[in-house]
Amino acid sequence: MVATRLGTRIGTAVKEVLRSKGAWRDSFMAAASRAIAERIPLVNLVVEVRDARIPLSSECEILRNYPLSQKKIIALNKMDLAGASNVKAWMEYFRERNCVSCGVNAHNKENIRQLLSLIQRQVSELRRDDQCYNDYTATVMLIGIPNIGKSALINALHQVGRISASEKGKLKHATVSPEPGETKDIRSFKIGSHPNIYVFDSPAILSPKVPNVAVLSKLILTGAVADCLIRRKEVAQYFLAIHNSSDQYKKWAKLSIKDDDRSFLKGTTEQLTSSDMKQKSQIPTDHTQDCIVQDVRRTLYETISSFEGDINCEDEMLALIDRQFTALQEVFHVSAKCEDAHDKVAEKLLNLFRTGRIGHYILDHLPGKIQ
Predict the structure, then answer these.
(1) Where is the CP-type G domain (predicted)?
(2) pTM of the full predicted structure?
(3) What is the per-residue pLDDT across 77-103, written as a single tens digit (0 to 9) for each?
């Protein structure tokens, strides 16, 4: 599969960069790992946050050294980017291995309530024989790799938990950033009363060993590893190879319109009044606007559906991807005269992928169902 080969190539290139610079695990990462390792045996419950698109590749290796059993919950965050049916299949996979898991979207309050309820049930199970349960204080630690959404989950749990407990006071906020590695220390946030439950937000940690190239390529694509280690264009090519090999584009068939329809729509648009035009004003450089996202989907549909080559042939797949980059330049309003035009297109395209604006994707396949 071409996507697999491109992913291997990217993972290999980044692995060499990391090895040559010795940049995989700096002193901060080592210190954070030690601090977390010291606290794991002391907390009542660990919530391991993973990316729902890569449930295996986003595993936090440090937890393999601790037989946590009922003391751990696997939270598949960003479930809105993976799709409910895919997350459900992975939850069943973990259930069969006696692991408690749940799907969650940090920006969905109902999901947060469900996660909070699960945490409370697990705490209750651990203290079911304690007669002073309501006066008990439980500690929970959220652990995960960079850019997995831990801080966003912390803030949501803190807010929902305090509202549920009818507590007043100033809310604390964990630092949330699209860039990996922004959390620098371990802080506590109250998320429940009767019993009191405090959750620790910990710095993101990675394995001291560089992952294999297949895992590394997925960490790069989802943003867990900084983009600065390789050209964004190469990462975007990897994404497009995955997308072009899937059936995702078929869902956008209704977005494609014929030339006659385009002429009609253009004429209709020209008849709009100036007030209508003001209401529909757009910012050309803002690629997150719904109208531009729709154009991206349409462009990807039309370029793939009209492709007559063999997607299993690397040269032909790359030729298709190059045409898609060129077509997306117009959609994203990137000048053809710009020297790094394709890199600018790649940056915008990767942002739409990472925020779920162009569909659901699972990059890890269930063991035994590898495609």
Answers:
(1) 29-208
(2) 0.84
(3) 999 999 999 999 999 999 999 899 999
